[in-house]
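User: Hi! I'm working on a homework problem where we have to compare a predicted structure to a textbook description. Could you give me the structure for the chain below?
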Amino acid sequence: MKRSTVLVLASAAVLVLGGAILGVAAAQSGPASVSSTVAPTPIRGTGEPAPSSAAPDDPSPSSEARDSVPAGAYVDYADDAVAAATGTRILFFHADWCPQCRALEEDILAQGVPPGVTIFKVDYDTNQELRQRHGVRLQTTVVLLDAAEESAASMVPYDDPTLARVLAGLGVG
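Assistant: Happy to help. Predicted structure tokens:
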């Protein structure tokens, strides 16, 4: 076979295999949903969701409960949760398929997030607009936000995916 034919066939195989993998990943993760609540769910028991002073049957929680996000927490990303968070806010662009992302997440869970810091786990694969807004081109990127929710600093702790490296690299702590 000619070299060009082999390259075309190899490229087609990669595209088909890649599409199949993405299809399986999408099927496993289920349909994408957007959270409309401000109090994000902590990830794997790393903290508690924001307390609610509303009665259990009251469908509208108080504005205090809606507006508070626990500092010193590692939580799933939501626009309104970032806006409501106080203290230092860090976006962690995470991909489930990335070994460095999983290593950093394990270290965050093992070490615990320092008081006054909230780390938001952003799904790298589904948040392209947010990635573009903050100039993120690689999973495992962490972005320190300023008061206006703009990038104040960013880094990729790819070779040393630890919470200590993230905090030092962003000048936090």
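For your comparison, note the following. The helical segments are 3-29, 63-67, 79-84, 99-111, 128-134, 163-170. The CA atoms of residues 24 and 30 lie 10 Å apart. Good luck with the assignment!
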